[in-house]
Amino acid sequence: MYRKRHEIKDLARQRIERLLKFAEIVYPTEPELAHRYGKIAMAICKKAQIPYPDALKAQVCRRCGSFLVPGETMRVRVKNRGKMKYIAVTCLRCGYVRRYPLKWKYVLPKPWHIFYGDRGDY
Ligand SMILES: [Zn+2]
Question: What's the 27 CA to ligand 1 centre distance in angstroms?
């Protein structure tokens, strides 16, 4: 069936959202399934040629597609490098480190604002 390009992109976004929700639900009992959902969500993104949504960036490892849970599969640290502060997020499954510079003192960088609000207490 023929679908317009933007319809495909909308569908892709909806599916990614749903996959991430499912991943959150199944993670406590079946972590491997959650990681699989993360990978599928990334694959959908690539196929539909849409940029990674913020929720996907925050919850799925860019390198290995693992579902990221703070304290379980990811480590979040605030670090200083000279005058610069940044949040370092480490995927504990593949070791990939992603750094988000903190430009303003009280504003959390994307994609963290979705989960922790625009203002953090760091
Ligand atoms: Zn990873």
Answer: 16
